[in-house]
Write a structure and sequence with these properties.
With 103 residues, this protein is α+β, with helices and mostly antiparallel strands. It has a domain of 57 residues. The protein has one helix and five strands. The strands form two sheets. Strands 3-2-5 form a three-stranded antiparallel beta sheet, with no helix packed on it. It has a two-stranded antiparallel ribbon with strand order 1-4. A hairpin with a 5-residue loop joins strand 2 and strand 3. The longest helix has 24 residues. The radius of gyration is 31 Å and the shape is rod-shaped.
Length: 103
Amino acid sequence: MKRKAVSSCILQIVLATAVGIMLLSASPASAQVDTGSISGTVTDPSGAVIGGATVTLTNEGTNAALSTTVGSDGGYKFTPVRIGSYKLTAHRDFRPPNSATSR
């Protein structure tokens, strides 16, 4: 009878220890992320980089827009961007700036 009680007590200790180890080693749950980033390079059809272009990112659900002007490397990055459907446009005006002319 004592043997049953001792082995039952040992089993309870082993189970309690195992549960304790599992609880202590569990990693905390990570929160879901609802943002990301959109990046790229503005190029022409031949693949040449177009610096100075204006890139606009428009949320198709809300029509909220963000714009940036790319540098000489043509690179752009929008971050953070909420999950959704977006339209990305790039525009570059190749006309020379207005200047005064004298006669």
